[in-house]
Amino acid sequence: MYAERLAREGFAALVFDAACQGESEGEPRGMENPFQRAEDVRSAVTYLTTRDDIDPDRIGALGICASGGYVPYAAQTDHRIRGVATVSAVDMGSVIREGLGRTQDPAILTGMLDRAAAARTAEARGAAPELVAWIPDNAEELMRTATGQFRETFEYYRTPRGHHPRAVQGWVLRSVDQLAQYDSYAMIRLISPRPLLMIAGSEAESAYFSREAIEQAAEPRELVVIDGATHIDLYDKDEHVTPAVAKLTEFFGRHLAG
């Protein structure tokens, strides 16, 4: 949705599937390696620099949800990215280590890392990679145990609203040990003096990621809060996406034009 809206505003917009996911190559399918995800962003920038219809000095990057962590992470050290924006940003490393809202029992991470280690050993001995669902198939189970944001996530990804047949609804288990050592925003100050814009919903349980990242970043930086929007609302609800796109259009137009 965001790429289509920005394209209508005159931007050339590239959307791509991460390695090991969607239509992109890579094995095992469903691998969520945050360092590879950042490399995917850099590779996309490299591809754009080869196109005759793209000015290599006017490339910006937008990340949504987990990519709102991966894009700034890549941009910290890739100076070809001249402007960085996020919507509903999430640091997946923090989510794995501490849970959303940082309320997770530390024993949960210990258990997940034990399982990831066992999965690596099993794969080395010939077992197929183990895929674990990050959104339960059972709506009743989710509604009983999950936070509001994860309920919204189910309603988006497990229904026709956001489901795609090539979307893997889980991760390879050994993704966990890679995610656990990853920090999206540890060096976010390195984006400066390039501009940073982060957009979050006022009702989003994930909004603290954007607030804290902006506090750590150096100027020029800007946090925009969309009133009344939750994390998932900013994916596709027109009343919230429209003001977000308007701000993105102004931001990229101001910093990438001429």
Automatic annotation (TrEMBL):
Signal peptide residue numbers: none
| Database matches in InterPro entries | AB_hydrolase_1 (IPR000073), AB_hydrolase_fold (IPR029058), Polyketide_trans_af380 (IPR051411)
Q: Which residues form the AB hydrolase-1 domain?
A: 5-235
Span-the-membrane segments of this chain are: none
A Gene Ontology molecular function term for this protein is:
catalytic activity
Query: One matching Pfam family, short form?
Result: Abhydrolase_6
**Protein name per the record:** AB hydrolase-1 domain-containing protein
